[in-house]
Structure formats: C-alpha cells, structure tokens
Amino acid sequence: MTADLAASTLAFEELRAGDLGVRLARDDDEVDASQALRYRVFYDEMGAVPDAAAARSGRDRDAYDAVADHLLVLDHSQGDGAKAVVGTYRLIRRPAAAAVGHFYSAAEYDIAPILAFPGELLELGRSCVDPAHRSRNVMQLLWSGIAAYVHLHSIDLMFGCASLPGTDPDALAVALTYLYHHHLAPAEIRPRALADRYVAMDRLDPSSIDPRRALASLPPLVKGYLRLGGFVGDGAVIDQPFNTTDVAVVVKTDLVTEKYVKHYDRGSRSA
C-alpha cells in the first residue's frame, strides 16, 4: 500500500448503517478480499474468462489495484476486516493513473476531453456486490462512500466504463439507443470509443422506444449514474473476456457533493 493510499484511508471514516459499513480498504488482506469477491462475481457468476494467473489465484487483479483506493462495504455480522467484505468499488485519481501510465478507461475510449477538464478527476470501476447482499441498503452505502470520497478529495468529474450484460449489441439495441438519444454527454466532456473498438449505439429508430421501459431495463449501476445527472460517451465497446458490452459514463459531481453535504449537515444538526 502506497503512502498516498495509506494517508487517504486514514482520512476516510467508516459510515455505518446497522451491521453494514462503508470505508476504504485499510490493508492488503482487505484488498485481497475485494479481489476475491470480484473474481466470484465477474468470473464465477457472470461468465468472464480468466487468464491463467487469475484462474490459479481465484482473484481479479491488475496493475491498478496497487495504486487505487478500494471502497468496501462490510457486513460486520460476518466478522471484521477481510471476512466482512461484501461489496467493493475501485477508485482511481490522476496520481494513481499516472503511476500506471494512463487511466483504465483509455484502453477502450479516447478520454482526451476528460483529461482536459479543469478539475480533479476520479475514475470508477470494478464495482460488484456479493449476491446475498444485493439490496438497496448496500447500494446506498456504496454511493454514500463515493460521495464522501468525492467531498474529501474535491473531485469535480467522475467517469468510468459501465457494463451491460452480454456481447451482442443487437440484443442490447434498446438500451444502447436509449442511452445515445437521451443521455449523450456534451461534446466538451464526451469520450469516444477507440476506432478499432467502436460499436454504434444508435441502432434503432428512437421513436420506437419507450424511454421509461428502456430506463427500467438498465443495470442498477447505470441507472444510479443517470440519477446523478450522468452522461454516456459515443460508442459502445465489446469486452469479450468479461462477457459485457461497455459504455463510458461521465458524471459532474455537483449533485453528488450537494446531496452529501445536505445529508451530513442534517445529521450534524440533529446530533
């Protein structure tokens, strides 16, 4: 764990809701538990294809894990520390991306407009929750943890790759067309899929789509981004190893920060 990462974890207090809590990973064992959870969800459950190293270790790992912050949801009824990890989100800021050489999303998207944005950036990724803990409470805790992190580090723009299940864009045509016509990012912050990976999202006549039904069909994570005023980039990307179709998501954090401050101001006044 790097010095910067360690300093970040010390500044982030755990937020609790009964037996559940959310905070950043504090040691390598907790990071390892998040990687094991990612493997169970992405590979065992969702059908991603592991490479030899991942199959041997039963862990989803890459070069970003050593420099990222790992947001964890903990179920303290299961124990403490690594034994309690039931949800995770990987958070990467500019210094962490620089240590690797680029942001993770740059492998799928031209993110030059995002890199040019005059403010602090946060890349979100590798989000998953244990099947037995997929509840509204856990998702709210994850978002509360992200809001606290955004507030702590004065983040101005969040982005990342969000996944739709499956690798057939025609089977996802309703969702992709809806996202393109209703939530396309403004040009100044719009990522575009790399030319050799670009899959058109505008696949159907938009007048043939019921927007409410299309929105309801989206994965909860994508809907969460949209509720915060999020946008999508231009073009989807097929991720064959992970058995997903990815879209780039961009969120200005004004609304995230405002909700966080109002919520905890209310709590302070009540106390």
Q: What does this 3D model show about the protein?
A:
This protein has 271 residues and is α+β, with helices and mostly antiparallel strands. The chain has a single domain (3-270), classed as 3-Layer(aba) Sandwich (Aminopeptidase), CATH 3.40.630. The chain is built from 10 helices and 10 strands. It has helices spanning 3-10, 28-45, 52-57, 94-100, 112-115, 136-153, 173-183, 211-216, 220-227, 254-270, and strands at residues 15-17, 20-24, 69-75, 85-93, 109-110, 120-129, 155-165, 192-193, 231-239, 244-252. An 8-stranded mixed sheet has the order 1-2-3-4-6-7-10-9, with helices on both faces. A two-stranded antiparallel ribbon has the order 5-8. Strand 1 and strand 2 (20-24) form a beta hairpin. Helix 6 packs across helix 10. The model is unreliable at 1-10 and 267-271 (pLDDT under 50).
Topology of this protein?
Blueprint: H1 3-10, E1 15-17, E2 20-24, H2 28-45, H3 52-57, E3 69-75, E4 85-93, H4 94-100, E5 109-110, H5 112-115, E6 120-129, H6 136-153, E7 155-165, H7 173-183, E8 192-193, H8 211-216, H9 220-227, E9 231-239, E10 244-252, H10 254-270
Parallel strand pairs: 6-7
Antiparallel strand pairs: 1-2, 2-3, 3-4, 4-6, 5-8, 7-10, 9-10
Helix pairs in contact: 6-10
Give short descriptive properties of this protein:
alpha+beta, globular, single chain, two-stranded antiparallel sheet, Aminopeptidase, 25% strand, 271 residues, 8-stranded mixed β-sheet, disordered C terminus
- The total of beta strands comes to 10
Give the topology string: H per helix, E per strand.
HEEHHEEHEHEHEHEHHEEH
Based on CA atoms alone, the radius of gyration comes out at 18 Å
Structure class: alpha+beta
Number of domains: 1
Q: N- to C-terminal separation?
A: 35 Å
Helix share bin: 25-40%
- Major sheet: size, sense and barrel closure? 8 strands, mixed
Helix count, DSSP H or I runs of 4 or more residues = 10
Oligomer: single chain
Low-confidence stretches: 1-10, 267-271
The CATH superfamily is identified as: Gcn5-related N-acetyltransferase (GNAT)
